[in-house]
Specification:
alpha/beta; 3-stranded antiparallel beta sheet; 11 helices
Length: 281
């Protein structure tokens, strides 16, 4: 594994791979890696000759400077975890990613999918995601990029951006990796106390309870969301949103909808946990 932080270093290695006709897989991360990230790396490695993992805490994705400052930086541990599963760990500096500072005028905006649900709650957040991913794609120039299905709206955003900008990058959605008790693995789980970690699987349990009701034919979306929120709040969560929408468009269900996605978000202590499940109709 090679640690690379400059564009010249990155391009020199990648150009060598290209000359040998090697296929390049890419996993963009903000570090603080867990088993969910490692599954993305594994999937990239199984489909490509070379794997690049980027670690960059993107300031454009944070609403508050305090949250950006508090985000865990664990580069040494991340590199140890990656070991030989990655050929390059790319650690660009903020100056490389944003030469004119965080207020650079050039942004990549994906209308529609970036403005609903989580995007409506956090204006500008998904513009930060699409901008940094677009820039990383330009820097790394991968053939394939892997993203977790746990961040469902983010994955939908990146797929739309890649398709509409005709980027020659295959996007692979990787199923959510879960602990044995059902909790979706996330860097945010590190904020949970021991007692909260015991309660945390109730988020997935409530989601699955709603999924069964949908599969059984229930279509009163408002009632389902209200019932799910009440169940979570009774368990000690503070529900931040339960959205049940068309799995393809992320808009309200219509007669043409083929599948629904349940998008869950709730606070447990200081941690904001998210999860999702797609239910065919």
């Amino acid at each position: 594994m090679q640690l690379v932080s400059t564009l010249d270093e990155l391009r020199a290695v990648i150009n060598g791979w290209r000359r040998h006709g090697e296929r390049i897989g890419f996993v963009p991360t903000m570090g603080n890696l867990h088993q969910g990230h490692m599954e993305l790396v594994k999937q990239a490695g199984s489909r490509c000759d070379r794997v690049v993992v980027s670690i960059f805490v993107n300031p454009l994705q944070f609403d508050r400077a305090a949250d950006l400052d508090a985000y865990p930086r664990t580069l040494e541990q991340d590199c140890e975890r990656l070991g030989e599963q990655a050929d390059i760990v790319f650690t660009p500096t903020p100056a490389l990613m944003y030469p004119n500072g965080q207020q650079q005028q050039t942004r990549v905006v994906v209308p529609g999918v970036s403005e609903v649900l989580e995007g409506a709650l956090r204006p500008g957040h998904f513009d930060g995601v699409s901008t940094v991913v677009c820039k990383l794609f330009n820097l790394v120039q991968p053939d394939l990029a892997c993203f977790g299905e746990k961040d469902y709206q983010q994955l939908a955003l990146i797929r739309k951006m890649t398709a509409e900008l005709n980027m020659p990058v295959e996007i692979l959605g990787v199923p959510t990796v879960r602990a044995e008790d059902g909790l979706a693995l996330s860097s945010r789980n590190g904020y949970l106390t021991d007692a909260e970690r015991t309660l945390a699987p109730e988020l997935a349990a409530t989601m699955n309870w709603l999924a069964v009701r949908l599969a059984d034919g229930e279509r009163d979306i408002e009632r389902l969301a209200t019932d799910g929120s009440a169940r979570l709040n009774d368990a000690g969560f503070r529900t931040d949103g339960i959205d049940i929408v068309d799995a393809d468009t992320l808009l309200p269900l219509t007669a043409q909808s083929r599948a629904v996605v349940i998008l869950m978000a709730a606070f447990l202590g200081k941690a904001r946990l998210i999860d999702n499940r797609v239910v065919p109709l």
